[in-house]
Amino acid sequence: MKTRIPLLVTAAALLVSLAACSSPGTAGTGDRPADTTGSAPGPSALAKADGVTDITIWHGLGAANGIAFQSAIDRFNEEHEGKIAVKATYQGVYADLLAKYNAGIRSKSTPTVLLGGDVATGFLTDVGQSIPAADMAKANPNGLQLGDLAEQATNYYKVDGVQQAVPMNVSTPMLWVNRTILAKAGVDTDDLTTLDDVVAAAKTIKAKTGVAGYSMQADDWYIEQLTATAGQDFCLPGNGRGSEPASSISINSGQAKENITKVADLYRSGVAVDGAPDGSAAISAFQAGKVGMIVMSSGILGALKTGAPFDYQALPFPTSGPEGKSGPVIGGSGLWLSATATPAQQVAGWELETYLTSPEVQEEFSHATGYVPINTKTADSASQQQYLRENPITERFADQLAGTPVVSAAAGCVSGAMTAIKAENISQIVAAFNGQKSVDEALDAAAAKAKDSFAEYQQQLGN
Amino acid sequence: MADTTAGTDGARPRSRRRMPATGKWLVLPALLLLLVFVLRPLVRTVELSFHASDIVGNPTRFVGLANYLDLFTDPGFLRVTLVTIVIALLGTGIATSAALGAALLLRRHVLGGGLFAVVFSLPFAYSAASASAVFAGLFAPSVGILNTTLARVGIDGPAWLSDPVAAVWAIALATGWYEFGFAFLVLTAAVRAVPPETIEAAQLDGAGGWRLAARILVPIMRPSIVFLTVTGTISGLQTFAQIQVLTRGGPGGATTTFVFQLFQLAFGNGTPDFGRASVVAVVLVVVIAAVTVVQFRLFGRNDA
Amino acid sequence: MTATVTSRRRPRLRAATVVRFLVVLVAAAVVFFPVWTSFVSAFLPSGVVVRDGVLPWPGSLTLRNFVAVTASVHLVPQYLVSVAVVTLQTTAQVVTGALAAYALVFPRWRGRALAFGLVLLTLAVPGESIVIPNYELVSAIGLRDTVLGVALPYLAAGYPVFLLRQAFAAVPTEIWEASRLDGAGDLRSLFAIVMPACRPEVTTAVIWSALSAWNGFFWPLLITDSGARTVQVGISQLAASEASDPSVLFAGTVLVVVPTILLVVLAQRLLVNGLARGVLH
Known about the structure:
The complex is a heterotrimer. Chain B is mainly alpha-helical. Chain B has helices spanning about 30-50, 65-70, 75-105, 115-120, 130-140, 145-150, 165-190, 195-205, 210-220, 220-235, 240-245, 260-270, 275-300, and strands at about 50-55, 60. Chain B has a two-stranded antiparallel sheet with strand order 1-2. The longest helix of chain C is centred in the first third of the chain and has 41 residues, at about 1-40. Chain C has 14 helices and no strands.
């Protein structure tokens, strides 16, 4: 009676009003800022600012890499004390970083600079929350010189001819070998140039020593490598870098399919062992002498150096395609500058990007991690040349990067659907590795699913 | 205003004195909080499930049941449902039955009984995330400590995280292990609460070991067992942390549960699709409600 | 007759005792294995346990893994955040739960059944289903990356209300009425009379709330960056980033788990007694 109605009314009113209440970010409240080409701020915006300009940078560098990154940030803060203060936050692995960034877009709290994973390039371009690097470079002629950066690296972040982001930490895939085991099996490291060589050697290692011959991280990045080094575009048309967005993948045809099948056979015949989705098992097995060769990123150098020592070497990723048209795809992440930050913050962020890609910082950062310096001027310094002499493995990283042709195949696929596609691909391919389905089935299923993912993405884009 | 009906919801018959009617407002803090943070979001989630979403996750146009049809006609969805239920039941089953066994075994004095009780309680100190981190090291392919240890005694362990069936067991074992701690504490309390006279009477009747346990102890402990089974299943249906840390839904979707798929659709695929993710959320609510009702019907209310 | 029964029992008893002991020993070893492995691996460089087994030579023990953990993950602030969140959530859930349970049991009012129905409904709604709207709301209020933001959606929970309502309903009316007749207000009645009478259930509610607050993972992962990160999120990020160095990961789990292990070891008796009458009736 008396007490019932107020309660019911309260409850009903609350529910209705809260449900109808449009939360921030409902359709049409302008998440996509206006096109900012040509309106990038110049140095005066920062010079005019009073006091300290606070900026934030989010990244996905954990463990040792994160520590090295943080010390670079700390030095930047020291050098710019009183003018710029940077707060760096580790947001988890690239996938989590992207999820947090998305959530940030919805709640209008994105960082000034995002060190986003390479795979997110398509998405970050489409979502339009960043000022293209080309525009900032033009407005700040005394800052970062894009021409100083290795073209193989900047090419990855160029979409439709426009430089969107600046690469910061670049990794390259290598063939790591345990020389002791290879010697025991009678395999010469000089003979390991093509994929066929490597496959044969893996079988020999297993036959002659009983130790597994091959392993790799169960990540789609390595499937991309098997495609790119075959001179094949991973996604069509044109790896998504033209005016038309990507709508299909090519792994179930051509040389890429052959490559994947050869590697799958190694797994199915017991020559290769599972490396785990994060690569930890591949590295652990390699360190424990349980596998003779692994295909892993250059970034694992740090882990190998701190583990128990053994005789290992890094060789270039095996080739399987026409020279001059094929090569491995880079990994790592790039710097994206927020279009919604204040002009002073944007210029401060560009200062940070200039700093992070400078020869000195790249040199030091590459020593502490396994990333390759992307500034071509890094190799000019005496200290770097000394370092390369003392650490010949890192020289191989740099050589591989420099020797990669600037072609479509080696540039990597760009699409906002890449994250979803990568997950589905590797899921299918691992099933093929484990013998649960045939390689043909797996690749066809992956290609079909990818088609759907591309279509769904375009649908979401068009909404 | 004397109201002397004894309510079926356990209400007290009102006394003859008239009490000031302030007590009922005490329900407001909890009720308002639940309305705002549980029920209203539920309504919003249902609302989101009827809309498509753009690449940032904002709802766009109304699509009616299209998202639902999409999901239900996806053959993978049936598998997700199955995997979710299997993992929930396995994990809870392992934890509860093992804890029951341990509690019963320790009922009578055993050499070092106190130490064993502490050891059995240890998994309670682990959360799902930290237990998963530990089991990640145990189950890792090629170098997992479990398999290498088993190899030393000549047992060839399965490929825990790469084989679909073994992966489900891996998740169930990790879950069962850390839930075992709490289950053991609850069941030990339950066993201790059995009146000694009942036990003595049964023993004088000739019931020993097994019979005593099965015929006398377990039925008396039923409310605790039901409590553990119900709460364990409900939380098992929401398994996420273990999958996030151990298998990331693999291999080939073999360990993708509702919540993991929700996470993938909403946050993991790079381009959030809150419309589809909300469908999974709604289905999850329905399944949990259904399971709860079924379990209450089967076992009776756990406050009986 | 009793004499023969006992003398027939003794030899059987001995064999059974030994068997029981062995079974318990094996079970304890199985349960303890993950704990032992993680502790041992934490003190050794990566790969040693794989190579040499789980009973290693003490010679190669090292603290380097722990140093690496503390360098890459800020465990202490995360721990403090987790403790703050647990305290806040548990207190709030138990207090609001007790208030609501009181209101749902003692005073009679129309709409009481509806209110209880709404509470029951929330029991079926799992946290992950409502994460997205809650994220929008908490962000809009500006509480992203704060302790309050982590705890806010969970300041009230259906289960403690449900549990305490069952408990309060079992309290004899006379006790409550007596206190009211003595002139005590609702709050006095609740906190001085009713709750002490339901100590076991209150204990269970506290343990349940604390445990679910401590174990929270999905929501804290979303709503925090680095400011209010909880220890569960920290440890899973450690798992993701320490892919190449399993020993460091183990060291991280050890650091996270040592305080709660101490709690369990010291309070095990207390927990059992507290639960003893909590879930049984």
